[in-house]
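Handout, section B. The chain below has 752 residues.
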Amino acid sequence: MDKYGSFKRDFDAADFDGQMALELVKYVGMLNRCMDRAIKDGTPHDSVVTFLRELGEGLNADRTYIFQVNANDCFDNTFEWCAEGVEKEINELQDLPFDFYSTHWVSAFAEKEGYYITDMEAYRELDPEMYAILKPQKIDQLAICPFFFEGRMVGAIGVDNPGADSFELCLPILQLSSSYMASLLRHSLFVEKGAQIDPLTGLMSLANFRDQLMEQKNKHQEQLDVVYIDVTNFKVFNREHGFGAGDELLRTLSRVIQTIAGTHYAARAVADHFYVLVPDDKAEAIIKAVHDEMINDERFAVSIRAGIYALDSDDELFTPAVDRARMAANNTVGDYQNYYLRYNSKMEVDLMRTNYLLSHIDEAVKKGWIKVFYQPIVDTFSQKISTFEALARWIDPAYGFMNPAEFIDVLEQGHLIHKLDLFILEQVCRDLRDAAAAGRPHPAVSVNLSRYDLEMPGLHDKINGLLAKYGVDRDEIRIEITESALLNNGADLIKEHIRRFHEDGYQVWLDDFGSGFSSLNSLQNFDFDLLKIDMDFLRHANEKTPIILMDVIDMAKRLNIETLAEGVEEKEEYDFLHELGCVLTQGYYFSKPRPKEELAQVIAEKQLEYETPDEHFFYRKIGKVNVLNASYPFSEENERPSSQTLPVTILLVKDDVYQTIYANKTSKDGVKYLGVETMAEANLLINDPSKPFFSQIQTLLHRADQKKGVAESNFVAPHYLGKMKAKLIAVNGDTRAYLVSCQDYTLGNVGL
């Protein structure tokens, strides 16, 4: 037997010796008992569950399961048995598109054949993407066999990790089982009509609901609505509380729906997807009551979202009606206020666009419709380009130029966003390699990861593999994660991803800081290297805004986290951020996102330069200084800074020439005590050897060099007497950066 490949589905007893034939007889008996029980009871559920258990135990397997094709021509994991200690996957494997499976499996299914793997590591070479899905589930071996009804594939039965001595027996058992399953499920109306009752909740099955819906629509004169309901972040609930709690939540929700709606015309389709048929004038009140009941239930405290579709007299088909109700729900924000919507025709147009995007993402990647645009990120201290952010643009032959807002959410909801994000990363790696080979500057680039990427098995191996393929160092890539990902994924999962990224040598940035419900928790619970703050925060400003922004930057500095303001459009915004010590800035003030071919021209027009690698490291050190409070950099690490606003200046010194690259407002106002009006004049003064202040600064900085810590000296000016402190904060070759502050002022009439 090969290490992987297809096997014929048709069973032929001539293929087996006497001993194996005897073994197979036992399983034939199991299948017959399963069929007899289903025919007698009228439902296959218990029979199938029993058979999968006996099959799994007999083969000493980890998992046995059945997938069935649903009304959307996607796969649902409808039955699963797991050995003790093996984690369930059934709730995660719902509504899977056909291309979820390996192309090699699909080809086998098309030929009415099954597929097996006896050596997962060998299979990795053939299909690394499927390997990345299977390996995290601890699957080392598997066999899966499709079953058919009237020539159409309607499902598959599979076994994971059968015992070492059982694999040869596994294939003929699946050959037999697949035929039995097709007959069994057909007999009990699972294929043609579906089960009448959902076994978990006791509600109608979706197929039964379909028949009842069309019958009731034709019978009633009053307007009827199809209402779709699901649980917000149900996967997160399952992950954090376990599948047992998830099942209890679904049973509770089903009782609440049925009680409040006062009808038996309620169904559970799959996972947390519910439908109910109600009078139009009661639909919204029912949704609100269900929502309030669930969110106030202390055991669960979950929110729901819902969609309403008003049945039309012309509605003759079931699927469009339920799809439109679900479509309306998918258009809700999903928060506590806006959790339901009524269907409107614009949603249909949006759905057509959505379906187009989902069905053309592979073609868009292959044919180059997806482009990488780069936006520079500028350091406010060096005033040079520090890094770039890579952003996706879709230039489509049918829809034209599309911004991320037009396709990112669609790809996320379709669980295809990984195809876009990995393509963008690969293109960035290719561009970095080409720039390095041509001797062009190539600063680090930040790339975005979706919250759904974080659920993808093998994510880190894929990312590391792409960088290795193009010879890109890991310190050339920054990983951006949106704050919403922290709300939609479990905390332990996020922590593990961040830990792994750091272990592999990447910086991890938190995008859209402040947009979530628990931003402070983001800082407390997760180890981010940088916060990205959207400047929309300032544009909707009031008198509290600068205070909040200052405190955010101050807090980040004390936590050794860098800050970046994105969406900077005006010089005044840039200057304000620089004064607060926000080191990195990004926005249209410098350049809108551009394809790489246009970057050189834009950078030349804006008179921007690139930081060299040494400069980048140098200014990163400077950027970590908390310029909002001069006492902090001179204090012990855990000492609370003074609330007094003191003069703060950062000086660069090269060849005994002093340059001020930062001065806060107090420092700028204080130059009058030097007998000048502006910082430019102060710069001339401190570079004039004929002035006493030149020697004072020179002596102080020389002490700071020698002490390798904080140096102090008295400060004498025409109208001032005080104490100066200086600290060496960064060195780049013959360029040195110092933090300088004046403290303990005593106003006096002191002459030079």
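Note. Confidence is low (pLDDT under 50) at residues 188-194, 636-644, 747-752. Compare this with the example in section A.
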